[in-house]
Amino acid sequence: VAMSTTGDKILDTALSKIGEKSLFTKELENALERNEVDLVVHSLKDLPTSLPPGFTIGAVCKRENPLDAVVFHPKNCGKTLSLLPEKSVIGTSSLRRAAQLKKKFPHLEFKDIRGNLNTRLKKLDEKEDFGAIILAAAGLKRMGWENRIGQLLGPEDCLYAVGQGALAVEVRAKDQEILNMVSALHDADTVLCCIAERAFMKHLEGGCSVPVAVNTLLKDGQLYLTGAVYSLDGSDSLKETMQTGVSYPHQNEDGPNDDVQHVGITAKNVPGQAQEAAENLGVELASLLLSKGAKHILSVARQLNDAR
After folding, report:
1. Domain named Porphobilinogen deaminase N-terminal: which ranges (predicted)?
2. Active-site residue among 46, 68, 175, 187?
3. Is 46 considered catalytic here?
């Protein structure tokens, strides 16, 4: 069942200005609630950190490359952002990307660009408005346009969005049969990384309208989470990294805690203690940034964005 959502329809306004958390999810959840569909597939980064009551993320699939990618106008083919001419215009509707890249590449200008991937690539190629646009590598890859990626932005250039590159399957929280069925799609490493990222975002009260960014790495049973907040122009920022151990044996966790959700995710086939450790990591990292003044940076960013 193909569906269109508010976020798909309001194409003349920057996402961060529409201000609705469930922009790409509301219509889909309504269909789920009315039993018209049994599961809904989202980009995890479109799903708010608190889901409406009655819904849960029953599966988080193995993450595609979570990095941001630069797609260049044909005339800039073969270049990188640092080699673009002074005052080249870069299209991105993401405050997170713009904040980081303004700071890193002060010679460039950033403008909003909306629409789905096809529309954005068309705007880039057929007009002279943009020298390049920034998109998630995962989306380009899924659509078969990987060959358009001119540059991948590593963590030293641009930290990614919470949940970027992962697909989530949303289901009715009480629908045991469907929950059991989709749980086979869970990728344990992705689940733990995304729980940590979502817990970080939730504790910061971040969303579409503020620049919050992350980078996670799971290696040798250690989960590393880097999280950052930025002012809109990137001049002010806070960034820290923390880690925690997540190798726990799988205990049989049936019983009253059968359906424990961690930031909206139900993953019975991933050890509960590991999920808890990942969630705590996100909360602790957010608390650390808050103790250093993240609240102020984010509230100023929010006010400035509302005034734009």
Report:
1. 2-179
2. 46
3. yes
